Amino acid sequence: MNNDFILVLNCGSSSLKFSLINPANGSTLLSGLAERLLSEHAIINIKYNGDKQQYAVSTPFDHQTAISCLVAQLNQLNLTDCITAIGHRVVHGGETYCQPTLINDDVKAAIKNLARLAPLHNPANLTGIIAAEAAFPALKQVAIFDTAFHQTMPEKAYIYGIPYALYKQHGIRRYGFHGTSHYFVAQQAANVIDKPLAQCSFISAHLGNGCSIAAIKDGKSVDTSLGMTPLEGVMMGTRSGDIDPGIIFHLINQLNYSVQDVDNMLNKESGLLGVSGISNDCRTVEAAYIEGHDPQAALALDVFCYRIAKAIAGFTASLTTLDGIIFTGGIGENSDVVREKVICQLGLLNFNIDTDANLAMRFGKSGLITAECSRSVWVIATNEEWVIAEQTAQLLNQEA
Ligand code: ADP
Predict the structure, then answer these.
(1) Hey, how many other C-beta atoms are within 10 angstroms of the C-beta on 105?
(2) Rounded CA separation 257/248 (Å)
(3) Considering the entire predicted model, what is its pTM?
(4) Which one of 24, 217, 256, 292 is at 20 to 30 Å from 193 when CA atoms are compared?
(5) 335-391 pLDDT, tens per residue?
(6) pLDDT > 70 in the chain, percent
(7) Would residue 218 show up in a list of annotated catalytic residues for this protein?
(8) CA-209 nearest atom, ligand 1
(9) Which of 3.30.1330.10, 3.40.50.1820, 3.30.565.10, 3.30.420.40 is the CATH number of 5-145?
């Protein structure tokens, strides 16, 4: 076995995604997901060599035990020796981290400190780092920040129209997320048109449970729809995206919502779920829309797609040329309905869909979905894990 794999860890608040990746070509030796951690329904799925194994686990099952379970499995499969380093997805790097970063005590302290900006994510990321250090004390650990790619945004894109002191004293500004994904699909699209990424301009739409649009100019992020937190921008599965901030005062002052109620409503009860009333899952909403008897499902999809199109059109203001639009994420990669609705909304900008190509592009397929007379739109399957593995390996090679 070659000694050249990176273990990529992505710790969510109640989940742990992991994969063992060859950084040179992105091939995955082993991957898996531990879900519903800290609940009595915790479960861990591991896929190796095409075989899927599911383990029911005894509770309490937390990130630490999930990593111990993974280590036991790696030992049993004799895979431990082929891991050269560990790459961690870390959600918030603030303004400090715009590059892959070797983890040490200072970096851990900074990740902890940045939890004030990402209270659900950074503590979980740190838990994963500490558990991985305990499990693999001899291996170097690298943090790849989700905000890093967007650190090239100009001030005019990241400053909010509120007192400037709030930015200077408390870091209140747009940071953006999904940076690793936007970077990956932009690089892939640059390969497709055979131009260096540094000469390309794209608008990429990462549409999953969370959704964000990014304007990429000369290969760099110049604006994005997610903000200081992952609540701003387009509508998402359960998150509202942009609303009039005055609604919050109305809810609290007139309708007796508590701050926690507003938080829950905007983060967990809104978006596709809130408008459709049936689900946050795009497949369910889409199926109800296609059946044709659910006007609210149809409305939810209309709002969802219209707002994506509006954001894309808005981001043309950030660019001087446009090589094309990229769709990615679970919805972007699979939903021909969403893509068609968005592109039809953009006819004025000379986008015309190729219906057959659009229908064919799903389940990991990547390609062009627009007609010959149109500006280009591609579907590109994202692969954040590969970027994390690649950047981890690159950093360690530089350090060696
Ligand atoms: P996350 O943001 O958690 O990584 P994903 O990128 O996996 O999420 O995206 C999840 C979303 O993708 C869900 O709304 C799901 O319904 C949607 N999705 C997955 N497959 C399809 C499909 N075939 N058609 C429409 N939507 C899909």
Answers:
(1) 7
(2) 9
(3) 0.94
(4) 24
(5) 999 999 999 999 999 999 999 999 999 888 999 999 999 999 999 999 999 999 999
(6) 98
(7) no
(8) 2
(9) 3.30.420.40
